[in-house]
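User: Show me an example of a complex going from sequences to structure tokens.

Assistant: Sure. Here are the input components:
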Amino acid sequence: MNLLQQVLDGLSSGSVYATLALALVLVHRSTGIVNFAQGQMAVISTYVAWTLYDAGVPVWGAIGAAIVLSLVVGALVERFLIRRFEGGEPLAAIVVTVGLLISVNGLVSLIWGTVLKQFPSAFPSGGVGSGSGGTIGYGTLGTIGALLVVVLALNWLFRHTRLGLAFRAVAANPESSALLGLPVGRLLMLGWGLAAAVGALAGCLVAPKLYLAPEMMDSVLTYALAAAVLGGLNSALGTVLAAWFIGVVENLAGTYVSFVGGDMKIAVPLVLMVLILLLKPEGVFGHKEVRRV
Amino acid sequence: MSTLELRGVHAGYGKAQVLHDVSLHVGDGSITTLLGANGAGKTTTLRAISGLVRSTGEILIDGRPIPSAPDAVARLGVAHVPQGRGTIGQLSVDDNLKAGALLRRDRVQARADLRRLRELFPVLGERAQSQAAGLSGGEQQMLAIARALMGRPSILLLDEPSLGLAPLITKELFVLLPRLRDEWGLTVLVVEQNADLALSVGDHAVVLESGRVVLTGTAREISGHDEVRRAYLGN
């Protein structure tokens, strides 16, 4: 394996972290809550995709259906569970999302069991380049490409559509937005729905690399949280760059720094997160909240 | 333009009852001033109308009861510029204005309204791309009012527009009110501490004391009222 391959593999893992991290940022921006169940919700979405695939649906169709279903379920979770905790004690909201994580984990084990399942890749096997340079897998490139599509789509939605403006208004000031006639509740539902849909994509991207299991997203969530915090929890661009950085550093450290190796890889982003929080609590790309008093 | 009527409205926060049996009538196309000391319930009256505070009793627009959710009230044509202005600091001036028109279907007309408002408040055009948080207090108040007008409301509720503004700017804003009322077809209910100024541009006035209506009349009657002069006008 040469350096380029290592970097691209890191970018590929980083893209998965980034996708889940974007879901975290979506939820945090709209409702001010860090959804610790985001990864677990992605797991159940991935199981749904697997079930559809197992029943004979083509892989892209299965993933697409799971994404749409997640959008609906994510919206319902906001409406019927999270709604009453918005704007309240942050700790209460954290306890609720952690409770949701544990419940969904139990539900997945109950429905699908704990035996690992093989999830098909949405991309063809093989890759480009050969010989001394090694090959770069289509899966690696496809994962990075999928993230870029998500980023561009979200950017377009938020910056260039009326719906996106409504989202930004509600995220910044729900009361003012209601006074403008914006349906705040429905927009927050849609925010959670979109996050769940993006999370579902993350799950379906990572599942072929690992095996499908109830705990599949635990480490991804750790990295995604690290990326979201590094990115400042509000900036999509910052989050993606941070996630790529984490993916690459993790991969290179695991390969080239002997005492880190495969087992200690997961510690690298956490150490980074602690350092950043010490030095720059608002994140590398976050902006300090400026308030007039 | 519309008429706004409150009949026997009670409202409060939790167990603290603020409004007791408030009844008032804001005539079609009038500017009505709501006066009263701090804590008299002026802001709560506006918040009850726009659904931000739960209330009992009847609140009617053109004789029809209003819905209870704030967004539904807004969609009925009630624009509420709250105390502190409620502009969205993180959004640009332009985005704030566009957010005010998000629910309109007549987009061509909405763009024309935006141009009109930029002519009326040139600073909103000059600083279109700046973050709203960077505007001065007076500019933010202009933005808040312009954003409210972008929704083409029939009723405008203004909560202490003078708060934190220099006297001259406050005066400019108030002098503008009758013109806005005429050009945009508004019925206006304005809460104001600066009673003299508010009464000078208003048609009618309502005085609240401890959550009850104690006086109503034309602006001229109220400003000539000895008790009111002693209590609110400082002479």
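The lines above are the inputs; the final block is the predicted structure for all two components together. Chain A has a mean pLDDT of 88.
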